[in-house]
TrEMBL record:
The keyword Hydrolase applies. It comes from Amycolatopsis melonis. PANTHER family: BLL5160 PROTEIN, HYDROLASE, ALPHA/BETA FOLD FAMILY PROTEIN. The keyword Hydrolase applies. It comes from the Bacteria. The gene is pcaD. It holds the Pfam family Abhydrolase_1. This is 3-oxoadipate enol-lactonase. Residues 17-244 form the AB hydrolase-1 domain. Gene3D superfamilies: alpha/beta hydrolase. It is an enzyme of class 3 (hydrolase). GO terms for molecular function: 3-oxoadipate enol-lactonase activity. InterPro entries: AB_hydrolase, AB_hydrolase_1, AB_hydrolase_fold, Fimbrial_membr_usher_CS, PcaD/CatD. Its EC number is 3.1.1.24. Keywords: Hydrolase.
Amino acid sequence: MSAVKLHRVVDGPGDGPVVVFGGSLGSDLRMWEPQVAPLVERGFRVVRYDARGHGASPVPPGPYELDDLGADVLALLDELGVERAHHVGLSLGGMTGMWLGIHAPGRIASLVLCCTSAKLGPPSMWVERARTVRAEGTAAVAEAGVQRWLTPGYRERHPDRAGFFRTMIAAVPAEGYAACCGAIERMDLLDLLPKITAPTLVIAGADDPATPPEEHARPIAEGIPGARLEVVPGAAHLGSYERPAEFTRLILDHLERP
């Protein structure tokens, strides 16, 4: 499958170091809003994109593979005239970041891998979720998605934000969501992690039910040479939104290291 032209929003100075943000399955680029202003203020050029099948990006027919999602980001960099970029990805965006670090090392200045996995099974879970979405639409999985993304306390304190994300998931095209489920179902990057040479920070949410730190973040950090692991307390799967100050501080610290 050929690369698609991703919907993107670019903020910050045109000559700043480029940081590309890739989001979770079921999200659009608005999930990164808490990170934009702090990075722009530090002189970074922030590029947020909707993955294929999500938000305002095209929805080509499936199946999708992680190779396709990675090729889309490389095409985005080419279109923007960016030779090398930092990549920050959460969940599916982190999986895409690992693919880029493995297959396009010359294009990646550094990686931040948030609340993600190099192999996220069982495959049957993704087959069933894709089947549900194709039959009933993404609204059928929206509530379960919010329960994974946000801790119970955060949902109780901020029902408006929980509703915002419920609506976001329900707006994702069914085929785009289901085809990305297939890409995750077939993904296994564990044995390829040692190929990543970019400086890498792995950030996990201590209360993440989708990718628990010991099962998913730690194997990534141990598999990538020189990678560092940080676990943020009080954060579920969408930790970058639930605990924005902590995630943003860690991201900036990594980006600004010599």
